[in-house]
Amino acid sequence: TSLTQPWAQASTETRQLFAQLDQRFSERWRLKLNYTHERSDTRSTTAFAYGAINPLDGSGATWGGGRYVMDNSQNLFDANLSGGSDLFGQSHEILLGADYQRVEGTWNTGKPVDNWLVPVNVFDRNAWNPDTDVPLTTRYEPWGQEQKGMYGVLRFNPTSRLHLVAGARVSRYKFFQTVSTRKDAGSSWAVSSRTDYEEPTKTTPYGG
Description:
mainly beta
């Protein structure tokens, strides 16, 4: 069961540019660089149910949604060096790399006047047909996140029948968001909240 409305829809256009450099220094050593830039634009009208349901009579949820205009850009970069060498009569491999991701966007929303006011019949979906041609009154800009890290893995083969793998990744994460609101299309935007959140550097080891 999908608690939405037949008129809810979304249209997204995505454009992507990517490049790769693959350089071999010798028969066993290799450098790879990858870069991707992506932009996406979404226009949508949504309808969804929200609220805790009373198990006795099914009441408690109301219809919500509205008009959304979203524009996002993403940049991805990865570089790694891989190679191998012989030791104790066996072949061994190593990989070292770093990556970076940054997503930025602008999200604009506009809500109908009866948003969260019309009850939902969760057992027999009732119609909700608000006017979605409404001004955009809430903006998330700038909105985004940033992730970066370094990683490495060693594949060590003491014998032809015994293989050991050990690696680790060091990563950092950051999120930022500013929310602005206005009363109508003719009003000025006013900042209502700001969020800056950052995870401390974390190391994730693994082996096998």
